[in-house]
Amino acid sequence: QVQLVESGGGLVQAGGSLRLSCAASGRTFSRGTMGWFRQAPGKEREFVASITWGGSAYFTDSVKGRFTISRDNAKNTAYLQMNSLKPEDTAVYYCAATHLPIAPSTAGGYRYWGQGTQVTVSS
Fold this sequence. Notes:
Blueprint: E1 3-7, E2 10-13, E3 18-25, E4 33-39, E5 46-51, E6 57-59, E7 67-72, E8 77-82, E9 91-98, E10 112-113, E11 117-122
Parallel strand pairs: 2-11
Antiparallel strand pairs: 1-3, 3-8, 4-5, 4-9, 5-6, 7-8, 9-10, 9-11
């Protein structure tokens, strides 16, 4: 049984920072890809960032230069550091994982999902 558990969400003012964590249990993803998606009310789930086992990182354009993604394979954990947050970053953020070594940018590319963590950015 694979489980992904996110933590670190919360309420922050615009311009602030948050760090999300995603801890995987049940199976290692050291050779796979971990990613982050988000879903705002009334909108579709969208890709935010992903990182391959080798450390190659990918971001959607709206977060480039503000968000960074990292992973600790020994801890089977991925992180999303979010800086200079904007109200439009408000969403439920989901961690996702796949054993594929590539870095999918679509939700269908990921087999495992966390329960989500709320991020709210006030103006």
